[in-house]
Amino acid sequence: MRFDIAKSGSGLVYEIRNIVNVANRLKQSGVEVIWENIGDPVQKGEKVPAWMRAILTELINEDHSFGYSPTKGMEATRQFLAERVNRRGKVQITPEDIIFFNGLGDAIARAYSAIRVDARIIMPEPTYSTHLLAEVHHASFPPNTYRMNPYCDWSPDVNELERKVKSHKAIVGILVINPDNPTGYVYPEETLRRIVEIARSYDLFIIFDETYHQIIYNGKKTVPLSDIIGEVPGISMKGISKEFPWPGSRCGWMEVYNAERDETFSRYIDAILNQKMSEVCSTTLPQMAIPRIMDHPEYQRYLDERVQHYEKLSNIAYKILKDLPYVMVNRTCGAFYMTVVFNDAVLNGRQHLKIKQDDIRAYIEKLVAEPIEFDKRFVYYLLGATGICVIPLTSFFTDLPGFRMTLLDRDEAKFEKVVRVLAEKIVAYVESAR
């Protein structure tokens, strides 16, 4: 090429997918990989029920499911979703306040890229990788964060959030992920109301990622943004990939609240929509399926059964790991992830796990030969020794070493066995350098 055409990167990678390259290399050597890296219920054995398949079959037989949708999305579906919000009576929206995207990854990318490069969104730490990467790529600087405290059930440090909002004038918005990914924390209503009040006091807008809002258990309760936002401008991000579950649909949407109350925020939403127009529209078939699936008499029962299963796995994992030396865990109460944190100064660069197969051991040792985060080093050794594929916690923009695993396996006995192997290998790894 005439000159280097690749745009300089941030140095960050999407580790949730990046580690698949390592795992696939091990599969070539005969390793059976246990995928705990990504929140795909279907991959972990979730069966799409017959009634849901029947709805999709009906839609495929309708010619207009193959055509373009309007840029904002199918009118009937947006009307359906607006009515669901309005029935709660806390805030009123119209179908025009809803914009569909090709998955929430698309929505997140558009939301951050439409912001001026000198304006910033403050986000939780650790934070979900897609938000992190979108914010870093838009501003070309590390993100501003408020900490989630693992020693206080992963609750956010709201005082830190307010101090940073007050002192950093470039912050224009606050991100909340509720239930949280990667920690599984469920925000109580009083905490959410305080965050909304901070946004109101400092003239900010709010983004709530509510992907997992229907997946809450262990007696926890929360409220959607629409219940508490009042007159503050904001966006709720929702989707069907986890709730139906249909991750391959790539179907998510924004619900925009109070755009008419703030001219600057309204221009921002217009900028997002103008970007969306450049790709014409989002996928039509999944949008058309939403009202028919959500209104089906079996839908709530099906969702409740899945949530109960995640609760069981949450408690199985917590019971096994809670008293383990060297790590700290909290009981997951929302979404379907568990995050394990290594205690301070537990990890170092001398630890290892025994890997029987020579070529795999050589491959892993090559990966860890270069300076890498200590938790990533553990993750690579765990993968090589057991085939269990988890994600290093430092990949979620935190200096806390640890890892994230899923709570998705449909086979409870198999899941318990995996967690017991994890527990055994955590101890063996830490003690290997003694």
Instruction: Give a count of the beta strands, DSSP E runs of length 2 or more.
Output: 14
Instruction: Provide the CATH topology of the largest domain.
Output: Aspartate Aminotransferase, domain 2
- Show unreliable segments: none
Described by its quaternary structure, the protein is: single chain
> Which overall shape is indicated by the principal axes computed on the Cα atoms?
globular
Numbering strands along the chain, what is their spatial order in the largest sheet?
Answer: 2-9-8-7-6-3-4-5
What is the chain-wise order of helices and strands? HEHHEHEHEEHEHEHEEHHHEEHHEEEH
Quick summary:
The protein is 41% helix and 14% strand.
Q: Can you put this structure into words, describing what you see?
A:
By secondary structure, the protein is of the alpha/beta class. The chain has two domains: 15-46 and 300-431, Aspartate Aminotransferase, domain 1; 50-294, Aspartate Aminotransferase, domain 2 (3-Layer(aba) Sandwich). Helices cover 41% and strands 14% of the residues. It has 14 helices and 14 strands. The protein has helices spanning 15-27, 50-60, 75-88, 104-113, 129-139, 158-167, 189-201, 225-228, 263-277, 284-294, 299-321, 358-369, 374-386, 412-431; strands at 34-35, 98-101, 120-125, 145-149, 155-156, 171-177, 205-209, 234-239, 252-257, 327-329, 337-342, 388-389, 391-392, 402-406. The strands form three sheets. Strands 2-9-8-7-6-3-4-5 form an eight-stranded mixed β-sheet, with helices on both faces. A four-stranded antiparallel β-sheet has the order 10-11-14-13. Helix 6 (158-167) runs parallel beside helix 7. The longest helix has 23 residues, at 299-321. The chain is globular, with a radius of gyration of 22 Å. The mean pLDDT is 93.
